[in-house]
Amino acid sequence: MELFQRIDINLIALVVLGTIRKLADIRLEKNDSINRYYIKIVEIIMLQLIFETTSCVINRRMELWLIPISYLLHIALFCTGVILTFHAYMLIYKLIIPNQSFSRNIKIILQIPMFICILLVLLSPIYHFIYYIDSNNVYHRGNYFIIYVTVTYFYILLILILVILYRRNLGESEFSLFLIFGSFPILGGIIQSIFYGTLLMWSSTAFALVVLYSYLQQRMVHLDYLTGVWSRGSFEFYIKNRLLQKDIDKIGVIYCDIDGLKGINDNYGHLEGDAAIKGVTQIIKNVIRKTDIIVRMGGDEFIVVLECEDSQILTVTLERIEKAFEQYNVASDKRYKLSCSFGSDILNSNFKDIEQFLHHVDSLMYANKKSKRERNS
Asked: What are the phi and psi torsion angles at 342 (to 5°)?
């Protein structure tokens, strides 16, 4: 019973995170790099909870064959722990400063403490740096355990510093949420360090991830029910945050309108029309970059949002999309062909707001559609 009381918080956290992982798979857009990052962190925490819980279950059991297993579990526990806090910092960095990445050298410097910790952990079975298991299969902290704790909390403190430094770029609710995300693991870890034997560090981090999930859902607003891409509300939320951060340079947009959708609906039915919309979405998703975003603006209209330095990226992307439609139509057994009309440009200071810019690329798209009709008439 005493053992269960020690691990029950981990078991609860594991069930909660398992549910969140399933919901994230269904409700979050997996083409979004931040959502993929979040899902990976959830999976790492779940592994952490399993490692920690299992190590507690076998701790103090006298069977000799359990000692090497205990060592392996603690190696996995400590290595994934410091990796986790580093990636948690990277995730929050991406959320708060989405279009500013670290240079290669800065990223290497940031990872040096993590690699030192991992090395100390790997050497601990021999030199007892971070921990050791005695002949009775009892876990003990090593003489340099404080180094591991310091590095682990270093990355969490970086999260709090980042949140405070960029407070002006965040809404009040976002600031509070990120502050909670950084504070939960610290409080849990402090309690676990003071009251040796309690398990709160990773379970509190798990509950912090539950809080962060609510933000990611808000960030996405809703996915389009038919296609699974971003809805217009998601796009507006995204642009609002980019504007708050004064980060609207290098945004390119391709406005897409499906050709002849009304004819498909009239001749083959609305179910086939829905299939055509989903088909168009999939064709575009298959050729754009993972960092690009596709949004259903409504009906048969979509936009692709790209990070691009110049119009060459827009041109290349459009060529790839048009070629993909040609290849699809050659291989398709449908009685109709799928195609789109396009308008594209890069957002710049000549446009007073995003609405004027979208109207501009929309006009370019309609000009493209008109020229197609004239050629085919």
From this structure: -130, 150
User: Taking Cα atoms as reference points, which of 215, 220, 302, 210 lies closest to residue 255?
Assistant: 302
In a domain, 192, yes or no: yes
pLDDT at 197: 64
Higher pLDDT, residue 274 or 5 = 274
- Helices and strands (H and E) in the chain: how many: 12, 7
Nearest-angstrom CA–CA distance, 38 and 46: 12
The secondary structure of 79-141 as a DSSP string is: HHHHHHHHHHHHHHHHHHSTT-PPPHHHHHHHHHHHHHHHHHHHHHHHH-SSEEE-TT--EEE
Domain stop point among 219, 249, 279: 219
Residues 220 and 215: their CA atoms lie apart, in Å, by 9
Buried b / exposed e over 300-331, threshold 16 CB at 10 Å, is bbbbbbbebeeeebbeebbeebeebbeebeee
Residues 305 and 352 in one domain: yes
- Residue 343 in any domain: the answer is yes
Summarize pLDDT for 299-342 with one digit per residue, the tens. 899 999 988 877 888 999 999 999 999 999 999 988 899 999 99
114-142 pLDDT tens trace? 999 999 999 999 999 999 999 889 889 99
In one-letter notation, the amino acid at residue 192 is: Q
Q: pTM value?
A: 0.60
Inter-residue contact 342 to 325 (CB < 8 Å): no
Does position 99 have pLDDT exceeding 60, yes or no? Answer: no
Question: What dihedral do alpha carbons 11, 16, 21, 26 form, nearest 10°?
Answer: 150
Domain match, 192 and 284 both: no
Q: Quick one: 122 and 250 in the same domain?
A: no
Q: Which domain holds residue 250?
A: 230-376
**pLDDT of 5:** 64
Model confidence at 19: pLDDT above 80: yes
- Compute the chain's Rg from CA coordinates: 26
Contact indicator for 323, 332 with CB cutoff of 8 Å: no
- CATH no. for residue 361? 3.30.70.270
3 state DSSP class of 302: strand
